[in-house]
From TrEMBL:
<feature type="transmembrane region" description="Helical">
    <location>
        <begin position="202"/>
        <end position="225"/>
    </location>
</feature>
<dbReference type="InterPro" id="IPR007163">
    <property type="entry name" value="VCA0040-like"/>
</dbReference>
<feature type="transmembrane region" description="Helical">
    <location>
        <begin position="73"/>
        <end position="94"/>
    </location>
</feature>
<keyword id="KW-1133">Transmembrane helix</keyword>
<keyword id="KW-0812">Transmembrane</keyword>
<protein>
    <submittedName>
        <fullName>DUF368-like protein</fullName>
    </submittedName>
</protein>
<keyword id="KW-0472">Membrane</keyword>
<feature type="transmembrane region" description="Helical">
    <location>
        <begin position="31"/>
        <end position="53"/>
    </location>
</feature>
<dbReference type="Pfam" id="PF04018">
    <property type="entry name" value="VCA0040-like"/>
</dbReference>
<feature type="transmembrane region" description="Helical">
    <location>
        <begin position="106"/>
        <end position="124"/>
    </location>
</feature>
<feature type="transmembrane region" description="Helical">
    <location>
        <begin position="162"/>
        <end position="190"/>
    </location>
</feature>
<feature type="transmembrane region" description="Helical">
    <location>
        <begin position="270"/>
        <end position="287"/>
    </location>
</feature>
<feature type="transmembrane region" description="Helical">
    <location>
        <begin position="130"/>
        <end position="150"/>
    </location>
</feature>
<feature type="transmembrane region" description="Helical">
    <location>
        <begin position="232"/>
        <end position="250"/>
    </location>
</feature>
């Protein structure tokens, strides 16, 4: 019974990450942090990447293949299945919701991110002194400025553009505070990618998956190294990324990302939806304390 409960929880965790990957401004890495599987995913991905490249390094092959066999494969497959189902479902339902109620949905997502700031801060495990606060504000300001850039528009993107954009966007899966969907939106690939999911355009999706795998293989080992060697600083930078990402989720803005003053009649509903977002994150933090279906792999 406990194993079934754990599998169901992991399916929900994977589904939450999948939904986040569809929503511009919300990071799948952030949700992975919230539901307590971030380091499991990072360490597992690093093992897979090293095992793949050990094909070209025979001396390290036995050690890496042993680590590969020791991964919690059932747990990873359940999480991946939850993500896949959620991505397909969210692509069909969330986009119309964003188009119909843009201010309220952005307010809700902003509430999620505001409460999420507590996650990397808590993981640092030390008081935030002046130096860490400076890093947070500097990174946050840089992200704020970047997210203010007007989005591109690509109706029929070239294959290399799809591959390169996917490689960049997949960083959001392993880097909390960075939204893969928002990066695609900035690059003009959000609508084409969403349409490809809904239309089952497997040619486009194949290119996208290839780019995502290449980007993941290039980035995940570096990030894990940073978490090992400079954990506190890396998590501090993640906090800044989360803070700056709120720029994309200000409820009142134009399609060119020009910030507007709050609409009086929408202020109270927006605050209520933001509060709901905060409450959901608090619930996810409680979920994080529940037992996992398998111990995290040692890498």
């Amino acid at each position: 019974m406990r194993l079934i409960q754990a599998r169901l929880l992991d399916t929900v965790r994977g589904g939450a990450i999948g939904v986040a990957e569809i929503i511009p401004g919300v990071s799948g890495g952030t949700v992975a942090l919230l539901v307590g599987i971030y380091e499991t995913l990072i360490s597992s991905a690093a093992v897979i990447v090293r095992a793949f490249f050990s094909v070209f390094q025979p001396s390290s092959r036995p050690e890496n293949w042993l680590a590969l066999r020791q991964l919690p494969w059932w747990r990873l497959l359940v999480i991946a299945a939850g993500m896949l189902v959620a991505i397909v479902a969210a692509a069909a339902f969330i986009e119309p919701l964003i188009e119909r109620f843009p201010e309220l949905t952005r307010a809700f997502f902003a509430g999620l991110i505001v409460a999420s700031l507590a996650v990397p801060i808590r993981m640092v495990g030390r008081p935030f002194g002046f130096s860490r606060l400076t890093v947070v504000l500097t990174v946050g300001a840089a992200v704020f400025l970047v997210l203010g850039l007007a989005p591109l528009n690509q109706v029929d993107p070239q294959p290399w553009v799809v591959v390169a954009s996917a490689a960049l966007a997949v960083c959001a899966l392993v880097l909390p505070g960075v939204s893969g969907s928002f990066l695609l939106l900035s690059l003009g690939l959000y609508q084409p990618t969403l349409a490809a999911v809904n239309d089952r355009d497997f040619g486009y999706l194949g290119l996208f998956i290839a780019g995502a795998i290449a980007g993941l293989a290039s980035f995940v080992v570096v990030l894990q190294w940073l978490l090992r060697r400079a954990r506190a600083l890396t998590l501090t930078v993640m906090t800044g990324l989360l803070l700056g990402s709120l720029r994309a989720l200000w409820p009142w803005q134009t399609d060119e990302r020009v910030l507007l003053a709050p609409a009086t009649e929408q202020l109270l509903p927006a605050l209520l939806w933001a509060g709901l977002g905060v409450a959901i994150v608090v619930g996810l933090m409680a979920l994080q304390r529940l037992p996992a279906s398998a111990s995290q792999p040692t890498v």
